[in-house]
Amino acid sequence: MEDKKPVISKKIDNFFRGLADAFAFVKRFFVEVWLPPYEFKEIVRQCYEIGYRSLPLISLTGFIIGIVFTNQSRPSLAEFGATSWLPALISIAVVRALGPLVTALIAAGKVGSGIGAEIGSMKVTEQIDAMEVSAINPFKYLVITRTVATTLMIPVLVMYTDFVALMGSFLNVNQNEMVSLSTFFVQVFEAISFLDIFSSVIKSLVFGFTIGIVGCYKGYRSNSGTEGVGKAANASVVMSMFLIFIEELLALQIVNAIRNA
Amino acid sequence: MKESVIEIRGLYKSFGDNDVLKGVDLDLYKGENLVVLGKSGSGKSVLIKILVRLLVQDEGFIKVLGMDTSQLTLRELNKLRLKIGFAFQASALYDSMTVRENLEFPLTRNIKGLTRKEIDYKVEGLLDSVGLPNTINQMPAELSGGQKKRIGVARTLILNPEIMLYDEPTAGLDPTTCIDINNLINQVREEYKTSSIVITHDLTCAKQTGDRMAVLIEGRFQAVGSFEEVFADATDPRVKSFYDYNFITQ
Fold first, then answer.
1. What does DSSP say about strands B163-167 and B195-200: parallel, antiparallel, or unpaired?
2. Cβ-defined contact of A121 to B86 (cutoff 8 Å)
3. Do B81 and A132 touch (CB under 8 A)?
4. Which residue in A67, B4, B94, B129 is a FRET match for B149, CA 20 to 30 A apart?
């Protein structure tokens, strides 16, 4: 029988169905992640793929952020004769916001799209079905391993980005203000608190989980042949970035509330 | 009396408004090769995917090796799946793994405690039996279509299945490779004592591999029997036209 619902009603229906499906997918992750078999070997392989193979891009971006942000901030501080505050300013900006956010956005583009495309391609070429008929749980082997790996590796990458960005900033400060490495890092660590580092790590864990689960979900639900694979990769990036920005806003509110309490 | 390894009764399956299977009844007997013929989109692949619960029927009863598949828990279903080999149309080899890893993957995950020597013996033996011992360290992307199909069959055989399901085994292959694949299907039955369902629209494949034919038209089996019974005495114009079309194109 022909569905006579108006188009807008169908769209709302589809939206809520999609939302329910996504929640069911996330719920399945939290149920199955604790159950054996634990695919440690595959998790380690994914950590290598996600972490180690992202290092060149992350290093370059972090380094440039450090230099550029320092350079752009100097004129404003110079007006007040406060260029000595540069290390403190940069460290707060990098550790609290720039490091986690930029790393997560880069990982969403590089890692999230890769996961979406890989799982999407496995779906349309029936490789996921082949696992199922061999009595292998593809959700455990593909989704849980990749999501655990991104959740573990993004915080590591964030800390690395923070360090590289601060090194970039140091080079710039050293050239212009003749500040030594030890003085620079004394100022950096005086400016940041335990809460800054703790919130940065927690936030990165959430970003990592988001990138992994969204990539896997979009890949797992892809269809329509090779066109579907492209769409899955694209949707992974867009959805991950959208969620990362929302999570960043929420984290900011929560951390500010804790700081002011 | 022949022993049924698969019994299908009153099977219905639809996708939205599209009714694909409309009351299918079928038996697969022990040791036989049953060929399911039908046009593209007639529901042949849907039928075998329902047998391994990759898809779930809307209505109907399926018994595989004496077990009602709709009543099984996931653990029981997985045990049953180990007894069924499924050779996919596009082979479905894992792209990121070598041929060796493709074969080892289902084996090591389902049979614990195997030594390296036992795994190698099994993998190398199977590659020998499908005639591709030299491909062991190759990636799927380096293989031809026919080689992929053979490796796909080898991967399903590694768990010693009792039933084999072949989804369009000769689709997209040249005539010589088709004959090789048909011979492989017969060889698998002889060596591994399997009962098989072969899904195809290729009459040459059907004639070479099948003991019985079942022609799926408009969601039901319109003719079941030996090749001669189904096509020589065909009265149903739809069955006859299927034969004529294949005869002309081949």
1. parallel
2. no
3. yes
4. B4
Residue in the structure block whose two tokens are 């960005």: A165
Q: Is A91 helix (H, G, I), strand (E, B) or coil?
A: helix
Listed in sequence order, the residues at least 6 apart from B180 whose beta carbon sits closer than 8 Å to its beta carbon are B146, B150
CA distances from A109 to A58, A226, B46, B215, B245 (A): 12, 19, 36, 49, 50
Of B90, B92, B110, the CB nearest to A135: B110
Helix A145-177 to helix A181-191 angle (10° resolution) is 120
Report the predicted TM-score, pTM, of the whole model to 2 decimal places: 0.89
Paired tokens of A58: 């992350």
Beta carbons of A134 and B110 less than 8 Å apart: yes
- Are B88 and A129 inside 8 Å of each other by CB? yes
Residue in B183, B196, B210 with CA at minimum distance from that of residue B84: B196
B224: in domain: yes
Contacts B92 to A, Cβ<8 Å = 125-127, 129-130
In a domain, B83, yes or no: yes
Diameter of chain B measured on Cα atoms: 58
Number of domains in chain B: 1
Exposure on the CB side of residue A125, measured as CA atoms within 13 A: 19
Give the residue carrying structure tokens 């864990």.
A205
pLDDT (tens digit, 9 = 90+) per residue, B166-202? 999 998 889 899 999 999 999 999 999 999 999 998 8
> Which of A1, A125, A132 comes nearest B90 by C-beta?
A125
Query: Could you report the per-residue pLDDT of B95-152, keeping only the tens digit for each?
Result: 999 999 999 999 999 998 999 999 999 999 999 999 999 999 999 999 999 999 999 9
Q: Considering only alpha carbons, which residue of chain A is nearest residue B107?
A: A134
The residue range of the domain holding B204 is: 4-90+162-249
Is residue B155 a contact partner of residue B91, using CB atoms and an 8 Å limit? no
Residue B63 domain flag:
yes
Contact in structure between A188 and A84 (CB atoms under 8 Å): no
Taking contacts as CB-CB distances below 8 angstroms, the residues of chain B near A120 are none
